């Protein structure tokens, strides 16, 4: 990474430029980026389209047919330019593989890639259900996969840090606090 303040004479003109850094977090997480750019950056997390954004982008009406299309094709803007279902399916598979293999396996040196893939499939199958590390470990063990609480906890953290999944914690309205234990996980 080039540090402009280390180049003599740049102070007088560097403020005239806007530098945008974008991409996957395979090499640098946003928390690490902030270390290098302290006080000189704005961080934007860009997520796939929500249903409302999808409707606006595709100029569609809010109805059952457009909702089914959203669920079927997803909210990634790139898929607008992919016209057949097989190509869209390949796009999502490649995106999934890139996140799992580059952003997670390589970065965190995951040794049990098969377990990570099984965890992802379990989360996909359980979207919207309450899950806990204990519940996931028990499921994995009942299906003859070797899994520890530490490994599953670490893998969940990696999936969250790479923005593959989003965690929704339970909230106690009366006690006004976040409950520990079970959470819901959603794909980003």
UniProtKB/TrEMBL annotation:
It holds the Pfam family AAA_14. PANTHER family: ATPASE. Residues 15-55 form the AAA domain. This is AAA domain-containing protein.
